[in-house]
Design brief:
Chain A: This is Phosphate-specific transport system accessory protein PhoU. The complex is a heterodimer. By secondary structure, chain A is an all-alpha fold. Chain A has helices at residues 8-41, 44-75, 79-113, 119-145, 148-156, 158-178, 183-215. Classes of the chains: A mainly alpha, B alpha/beta. The interface between A and B is medium-sized, with 18 and 16 residues.
Chain lengths: 237, 271
């Protein structure tokens, strides 16, 4: 384990930041799971809870920012400490965005409530969100143990989510073409799918930040991408 | 095509690395105080027109190494230096070397400002006079003014040149000492914790001065302040228990050092 600081209050400050990140991570994860559940079950009460939870998450991010800035001013951190505090700020910002994506998904619950979500699409969305939430959960575990190797593995895994998203995209297009009355619902679902896919991207960002904290280097090479939805035209489906 | 240009860049970078001009080179430098060994085979090259910071916990040998660079250790009884230190390729421990002349080329500024108990003018003029650098008063006046200008002190003292140097504030005294070091046209300036007795404002002025002096001089500074080392230097060397454990670009040293001991020291952790 890493040695401790001569100033024990400094250790406390760093521990506090770590704890807050874990809390934010747990909440963001829960919000996103709830949002998708609310969507497929047309549960507007649960959707409302997600929307109000976002306030807590935003507050946590601001708290982390304030505390990190005070610590930088007071301790003038160096090397791994400096990387850790800067990394903490970046991760907090990513988690705050994850919460926003969950909230945006929850807001669409009301819009699709009238028609409901077709069973097949619901399964697709659930599967996509499972993948994204596993990414998020794993990356938060890696944050706790600071393993650059594991961060790198998670970074490589985002491809799966992208592929799943592309296939959902294709499916939604098919539904819309089958019956124009599906367009409103499907467009909302498309945004939801995109939201969930973006959660995976933020998990990847966090993995890269953890890699940087642990090694002081940026991970090498382009991050793997398998989101080809931008290539799809209506004729191609 | 891309590969080629990348290779060309690498090559150019390599060349640049090899083109680094070393003003002073320390090779296998060991220092003993009587039976006690203070430095163990230190290999440290000091780059020209660069500020090199020496850091490390008390007793690590950083001041000892600094003092070997202009043979200040000669005055300490029982002190023995082995290995080789060169200035522009010449061995400074060679018997032929005139130590007084060496110390004119490699000047020093100490922790506590130590102006002579003479006037401001005389503090600066003393060195040039004993080295015979000025012919007549006009030339000496010019040297005094130029030195004080370079040390950023001229505006503050130009109307009181003949008042005592010890009447200045601590920060002004330290800049006076730097002006005194500059007056003999040194090539290298060694600084042993030059700001440890100064307040933050005076420290900032001295640091600004160090930054400006780099254009004309090679500077080696010992400091206990990590932030100061990070602020003023381009290269940083970390000493620990008489060993040089790491020498690196300052930017790298304070964000991602290679050695665990450096890491622990700069982060204020228990090793």
């Amino acid at each position: 384990m890493v040695s401790t600081h001569i100033l024990s209050a400094y250790d406390e400050e760093l521990k506090y930041l770590n704890r807050r990140i874990s809390e934010m991570g747990g909440l963001a994860e829960q919000m996103c799971g709830d949002a998708v559940r609310a969507l497929v079950n047309s549960d507007s009460a649960l959707a409302q809870k997600v929307i109000s939870d976002d306030v807590i998450l935003d507050h946590a991010e601001r708290d982390i920012q304030d505390k990190a800035i005070v610590t930088i001013a007071k301790r003038q951190p160096m090397a791994a400490d400096l990387r850790e505090i800067i990394g903490t700020l970046r991760i907090a910002a990513d988690l705050e965005r994850v919460g926003d994506l969950g909230k945006n998904t929850a807001k669409r619950v009301l819009a699709v409530q009238g028609t409901g979500v077709p069973r097949k699409l619901a399964r697709g969305l659930e599967h996509l969100s499972e993948l994204a939430l596993v990414q998020l959960k794993d990356v938060l575990d890696v944050f706790a143990n600071r393993s650059a190797e594991k961060a790198e593995i998670i970074r490589q895994r985002d491809e799966e989510i992208d592929a799943m998203y592309t296939s959902l995209f294709r499916e939604l297009l098919t539904y819309m073409m089958e019956d124009p009355r599906n367009i409103t619902t499907c467009t909302h679902l498309l945004f939801c799918a995109k939201n969930i896919e973006r959660i995976g991207d933020h998990a990847t960002n966090i993995a890269e930040t953890i890699y940087y904290i642990a090694t002081g280097a940026q991970p090498e090479g382009e991050r793997p991408k398998d989101d080809t939805s931008n290539m799809l035209g209506s004729a191609g489906t | 095509m891309n590969m080629m240009s990348e290779a060309a860049v690498e090559k150019a970078l390599d060349k640049k690395m090899n083109d680094v001009a070393y003003k002073m080179i320390g090779k296998d430098v060991s220092v003993y105080y009587g039976d006690k060994r203070a430095l163990y085979d230190v290999n440290l090259n000091v780059r020209q027109n660069t500020v090199t910071a020496l850091i490390g916990p008390s007793g690590c040998g950083k001041s000892t190494f600094l003092r070997t660079m202009n043979r200040m250790n000669d005055t300490i009884e029982g002190c023995r230096v082995t290995g080789k230190i060169t200035l522009d390729g010449d061995d400074i421990y060679d018997k032929e070397i005139d130590v007084v002349e060496l110390r004119a080329r490699v000047g020093m500024v100490f922790q506590k400002p130590n102006p002579f108990p003479k006037s401001i003018y005389e503090n600066i003029a003393y060195g040039p006079r004993i080295h015979g650098l000025a012919r007549g008063k006009t030339e000496m006046d010019a040297i005094v003014e130029a030195s004080l200008q370079r040390a950023g002190l001229w505006a503050e003292v130009k109307d009181r040149l003949h008042e005592g140097g010890t009447g200045l504030s601590g920060g002004q005294q330290q800049r006076l000492c730097i002006a005194r070091a500059i007056a003999v046209s040194p090539e290298v300036i060694l600084m042993d914790e030059p700001c440890s007795a100064l307040d933050p404002i005076a420290t900032a002025k001295v640091e600004e001065l160090i930054h400006e002096l780099r254009a004309n001089y090679t500077i080696v500074i010992v400091t206990h302040s990590m932030q100061q080392a990070a602020r003023v230097s381009q290269r940083t060397a970390m000493f620990h228990l008489g060993h040089l454990v790491e020498e690196n670009d300052t930017d790298k040293m304070f964000t991602n050092p290679d050695d665990q001991r450096t890491q622990d020291y700069i982060m204020g952790r228990f090793g």
